[in-house]
Structures are given as structure tokens and as C-alpha cells.
Amino acid sequence: MRGHEPRSSSSCAACKLLKRRCTPTCIFAPYFRSSDLITFAKVHKVFGASNVSKLLGEVPEEQRQETVNSLAYEAEVRLKDPVYGCIGAIASLQKKMLELQHDLAVARTRLLAHSGGNNHVSPLDNSPELAAFLDLVPYSDLMLLDGSSLDAYLYDLGQPPFV
Amino acid sequence: MNPKRCAACKYLRRRCPKDCIFSPYFPPNDPAKFACIHRIYGAGNVSKMLQQLPEQTRAEAVESLCFEAKCRVDDPVYGCVGIISLLQTQIQNTQNELAKVQAEVAVAQTKLSQNQNSDFM
């Protein structure tokens, strides 16, 4: 009988899509279950199966799941935005960060003005008035100064699954 | 045929035709750029991606692919997604700080108006 690699009882998503035998040592099998063909299809479309295989081979086994997660995220974003991919997301976040830093500087200036121009900002961390105020305004209602909700902003952007 | 092959065709060891899809974006004086992008995406995938884009957006697409490829080479586990995670964490931290300072301003304003009211009495 000709020697051949034992056939796996069920092919992983990668081997299903690539129409090949899924062996017990298949590098994709632990990370691309057969029930999730779409994720592998997206990763394959952007990176190519052989490149993904090489990338996985270059990282320690315990980090391969994280690698696959980030590749899947990057592929998803690239397919949604074929021109800018994740760079568009980074640029938006950097812009938002600059806006927040500006708003924080303005708020700190206002606080200094209210505290009579003292350089020492009054330590209100343990202030009962501050605690009462924060109790009245749940975090989810606190908005960015332009009226947008941070949670909605992050949801639209699509937070990486492993954060 | 281009008298001088683009970086992609040099790397792939093939002739560089006049209508080479890579040549406008991978000049021969920067071989590392194509090497990096080929390592992560592969020439075939990059070619397909560029073909599916309007010509006026291809230069931007190449630059963003190059950046992402470089991030992936530098950080094989997270690539540029690591930068996104870091920025999101920084944004949340800054938002928390902003909310705290805004609350302090509100408390200070309340105290000030209370003091002003008691002065009138």
C-alpha cells in the first residue's frame, strides 16, 4: 500500500477552501475551524495562504492565535477600505487623539482659572462633591466635546477582538 | 518594454512591460519597498488589489500596503493592529482624564456660584 498522510476526520477552513487534504500537522487547522470559512477566505484574499503559513511558522506557537486574529482584522479592514486599510483607521484615531488632547488642555486651563490661577490644581480626587457629580453622570453619558460618544466611535471603527 | 525594469520586475526576475502595473509605484532605486510588500502580501495579491482600484487611488494604496507590510515585518504577531490597539487605549485614558477634569471644572463652577450667592445675602 502506498504511504500517504492520514486523512483528518474534518478539514479545516483553509484546506476546505484550498481543496486539499487536511493533515493532523496542518498549520492552519488550530486557528481556522471548518465552521468559519469566511475568515480564512478574507485572510487568503489579502495575504495568500502560503504567506500566512510562512508568517505563522515564524512566530512561537503560543502567539499564533493572536497572529491569526490580527491578520483577520487587518484583512477585514483592507477589504472594507481597499485604498487605506488599517492606515485609514490609524489616521482617524490619531486625529481623535489630537482633538482630545486639545480639549484636555482647554479643560485644564479652565480648571486653573476657576481655582484662582493657582498652579496647584486642587486635589478633588477624594472630594465628595466630585464623587457625587460623577455618580450623577454615568460614564456612558459622558461625551466627547463634539457631542459624539466614544463608545459609538470605537464601535464604528471595529475594535480588535483581542483588546 | 521599459528600458529600465521597475523594482518589482527586477525582484521577480522578469521583463518589465510598458503597462507594468507595478512600475509607477516601485521605482528601481528602492528595491526594499517591493521586497517588503512581496514578503507579506505576495506579488500576485498586490497586482490583483491594484487592478481592482481606480488608477488615481493606486499610489495611496501602495503606500498604505507598504506601511502595513513594514509594521507586520517589525511585529509579526500584531502588525499595525498593535498600533490601533495602543491608540484606542490612549484615547480611552485621555477621555477618562478629560471627563475627570470636566467634572472638577463643574464642581469648581458650582462652588464659585454658591460663594457668589452667599456674598449677596
Automatic annotation (TrEMBL), chain A:
Identification of the protein by name: LOB domain-containing protein
Pfam families per UniProt: LOB (PF03195)
Chain ranges of the LOB domain: 10-111
Family: Belongs to the LOB domain-containing protein family.
PANTHER family the record matches: LOB DOMAIN-CONTAINING PROTEIN 21, LOB DOMAIN-CONTAINING PROTEIN 4-RELATED
InterPro entries in the cross-refs: LOB
Transmembrane portions of the chain: none
Source organism, top-level taxon: Eukaryota
TrEMBL record, chain B:
Keyword Coiled coil: yes
Segments forming a coiled coil: 84-111
InterPro entries assigned: LOB
Domain LOB per the UniProt entry, residue ranges: 4-105
One Pfam family cited in the UniProt record for this chain: LOB
Keywords: Coiled coil
Family statement drawn from the similarity comment of this UniProt entry: Belongs to the LOB domain-containing protein family.
This protein's name: LOB domain-containing protein
